[in-house]
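Title: Request for sanity check on Phosphatidic acid phosphatase type 2/haloperoxidase domain-containing protein prediction

Description:
We are preparing a figure and want to confirm that the structure record we downloaded matches what your pipeline produces today. Could someone re-run it with the sequence below and paste the raw structure tokens into this thread? We only need the token string, no images.
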Amino acid sequence: MRLNRPVPSRLSRPGARAAVGILATLALVAVPAAAGPTAVADDRRAPAADASAVRHWNAVATQTISASLGAMHPSGQVALWHGLVSAAVHNAVAGIEGRYALYKWKARGPATASPEAAAVTAAHRTLVAWFPASQTRLDAEYTASLARIPDGAAERQGIAYGERAAEHIVRLREGDGRFEPVEYTAAPEPGVWRPTPPAHQPYLDVWLGTVRPLLLTSPDQVRPGPPPALTSARYARDVNEVKTMGVKGGSGRTAHQTETALFFGGNLLVQFQTAFRDHAARHRLGIADTARLFAAVNTSAADAVIASWDSKLHYGFWRPISAVQLADTDGNPATDAVPGWQPLLVTPPHPDYVSGHAAVAAAVLRTAAGVLGTARLDLYVRSEATSTTRHYAHADRFNQDMVDARVWGGIHFRSADLAGCHAGNRIGDWALGHYFQPLRTSGPPMSRPARPAHTPPLSRAALPKCPR
């Protein structure tokens, strides 16, 4: 199914208003709280908000985005949509809980509002706005989620504030460059990208390299220097490594290396959503910390995709399959052409430099470490491509495997992976320095007191690093 273009609504269509009216009259039941109590305006103790509401709607978002784009879609669009939905949910929760700075918004909600109702409403409204073909299923999920929240004023206030949070994000992204007709016109000379076998698809979603970032000031803010020159020794090492280690058959890979390449051959954003839902549940993160974690990692991932596509569009560097098959045209005496060479993985339809997977992984892990206060992330990562799960205790190990995997898969040069990793780290640093920060005030600007952040900031040296 092809993704629908954004709907230029204010989330106020007659159908949407009717749905809100119907849902607000449902008979609702309470569920047990998942965390400790939080003070409200009259100093009575209210049940703590249930963080599973945020986790569930992250899963709903994953399902909705994957159904629209295709689970194995080779574009980075999935990161952009997850970033936008997660930002809306974070604002809906943080504006009530009062612990963290809002994302590009100042309108705080009533302290007596239900954070769960706000979170599920913000997620539902943003997903319906951008994926209207999924509205029937989304409405059913929304009805079920509201049925788990106690009826009354808190729920009504949460719904109203969640609607405002969603509407703010939708308005904020109007005219941001999504789906703009950006063309790639470079002639297929040596070193220049061209469509690759087997499908010879054109450059996919070129507009991602020019769309307005979520966190950065411009798509080229972290653009690295150029890839190695075709006649350089570094380029020859890259080509000869991927020719040997990334070939489909008869490679120098071990069985574990092949499995690693295949493990990261699917949709990385889906892998991250599942891993962080599991992490948040096992570590009993509260609703504000859960919403903040998803917003921080997903907006960082979105900007990593945008920055990667900017570099791909700017440099237009060819993929290993072209480089190996046409090595007799590169002017480098240390490379030899293998006309029938094929990579282990199918080459995605966009240029090599920089690796989007490596950039996204580094940005997500750097940001997550800063938010959680540790680079020992304890992530269980599932791969649909191999039907296996890996445990990553430390982010550095993940970055190493990601850089290696794209080479062993035959679809990236090592230089592209390392450049992507370093760009991702810079995005993570920018996210941690400018967004989602704990409130520093001793008294919040609303009646519910803000609790201090539970983790101290990490030093730059303690954050995840890229392989050498």
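Thanks, this matches our download. The chain has two domains: 14-172, 224-462.
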